[in-house]
């Protein structure tokens, strides 16, 4: 169907005439949208992205309209015949039909009015067809008088955004959980692989590669919990507020009735705001929720930074792990393979951080009884969630699940690492350990060999103390063994 105003000028296409307070326009005969949508297509050729790119938002709009139709029937302001027609039309959209008819751009002036009108017109014309009537027969069923009864854009739009985000969050959390499980599986696979830990990019004490990947999984688990906790921000809705929160044009019984039906339709634990004037003008909940998405994105980006470092090389870098080769990495260097999957996740994180700033500025830009910038708020958060979900999917399937460890390289680095000597300081003392560390750095020799040669510990005790279980802290050191002295050793044993 048409995505811009130029399509409206195709005189070879069958049309119908629709009229609003500004005049008349020719609408493609097969279009389920109408004149208000047509004007939005003319006015907002900005993003070239229709709202249908966010299916959960479209479904949420239909859910709000369905709940309103049921509430209006219940309180007696809409006759059953028309109400049920709207109800059935909404259900078809909820089930995935007619999404291509939601054509207005995601970025639009008017605080979401174009989106609300697009929904009203589409549902009305679906309902008219169900009744055996032609599209545009608004004398029988009106987008405004019937489908939008007891409503305003200013309560429909923010409520639909919150419901849509809550629906989308379920998918995001499911993918986040799967990614966490992938990291946990790798932590089990690498549980016995010793490696050198690093602080400030300098060699530190040993750990296992399994511990490192378990840390990644724990980080993602924390983000899962934070996002789950912040879901409550999406639960407070302002249906019944109508224009500015006073409820003008809606009966006093409408808010309670529409909440009941909306909870039943969505399966969400929604509540009506206690102060409808405040909740209509305040968009702080979107800012807080966006911030939790940014936290998840930034922490995931940090993990991807680590994966790129750990896999760097493969010859002149860390070379500790191998990422699955996904594509040729250079048009000039044969055989080069780049960490393209972590790189794309990094870029998604940058975009999410930028979107969060956009949300912050849009929230601040609200004036008096309404925030006119909810369209860019909605677009920013939905885009962040969509990109994050896709980024986590490709990271899991195309990267994490196929990571392997360079066990021999890791073992050699641990064996020659001066960080190993830290585990021996309770037995040989700090001064002796420092001297041995310096010797190991200068000569490149194995620390364990130097300790035994110095007569400070037996081979059996050194082997015991630098076992993977003890070096990684999985097995606690409970007491120091007697210090073994060489004839030239002047180092005193450590004091308790």
TrEMBL record:
Coiled coil: none annotated. One of its GO terms (molecular function) is aspartate ammonia-lyase activity. GO terms for cellular component: cytosol. Residues 24-354 form the Fumarate lyase N-terminal domain. Keywords: Lyase. Residues 10-19 have a biased composition (Basic and acidic residues). This is Aspartate ammonia-lyase. Pfam families: FumaraseC_C (PF10415), Lyase_1 (PF00206). Residues 421-471 form the Fumarase C C-terminal domain. Gene3D superfamilies: Fumarase/aspartase (C-terminal domain) (1.10.40.30), Fumarase/aspartase (Central domain) (1.20.200.10), Fumarase/aspartase (N-terminal domain) (1.10.275.10). It comes from the Bacteria. CDD domains: Aspartase. One of its GO terms (biological process) is tricarboxylic acid cycle. Residues 1-20 are annotated as: Disordered. PANTHER family: ASPARTATE AMMONIA-LYASE (PTHR42696).
